[in-house]
Specification:
Elements: H1 7-10, E1 16-22, H2 26-35, H3 46-51, H4 61-76, E2 81-89, E3 99-111, E4 114-124, E5 130-140
Antiparallel strand pairs: 1-3, 2-5, 3-4, 4-5
């Protein structure tokens, strides 16, 4: 969903980030491990993950970060650029969990004609448990607002 055209409606403090939902698969987790050279078997070998006490293969911590970025940039629009991101993994997520990223605007600061929008984010699983919490700053160029 593209943000509304009027800056007043989505740049105000407290404005929600459009929810972004993803359901990571075992194939996605395997591919992400391969692309990031993450050889830990808990991310791609279900039997091994279970032998380590996990219910299934785990979503990689950095993939959670990617989900936050995808949610944020989809909400902020194609001209937005990510200035900073920090997140904390709070709970595991496994393949086939339904993960939804939500958030809200915490502050808006002008930088010349552009806007720096600080956002608080959370990723929850299908049970409502917070898997990841985070904060980000995106720059919205003047021509987008």
């Amino acid at each position: 969903m593209t943000p509304p055209k009027t800056a007043a409606s989505w740049f105000r403090i407290g404005a929600p980030v459009t929810p972004y939902t993803v359901r990571p698969t075992t194939v996605q987790l395997f591919r992400f491990s391969a692309a990031t050279w993450n050889a830990h078997r808990i991310h791609y070998d279900s039997a091994y993950a279970r032998s380590e006490g996990h219910p299934d293969v785990l979503v990689q911590s950095h993939l959670h970060g990617c989900f936050l970025v995808n949610a944020l940039l989809k909400w902020a629009g194609p001209q937005a650029t990510l200035r900073s991101l920090r997140w904390r993994n709070r709970r595991i997520a496994v393949a086939d969990d339904v993960l939804t990223v939500t958030g809200h605007v915490m502050s808006v600061v002008r930088e010349g004609d552009d806007r720096l929008v600080e956002v608080e984010l959370a990723e929850r699983d299908q049970r409502g448990a917070v898997c990841v919490s985070g904060q980000a700053v995106v720059c919205i160029p003047a021509e987008s607002s």
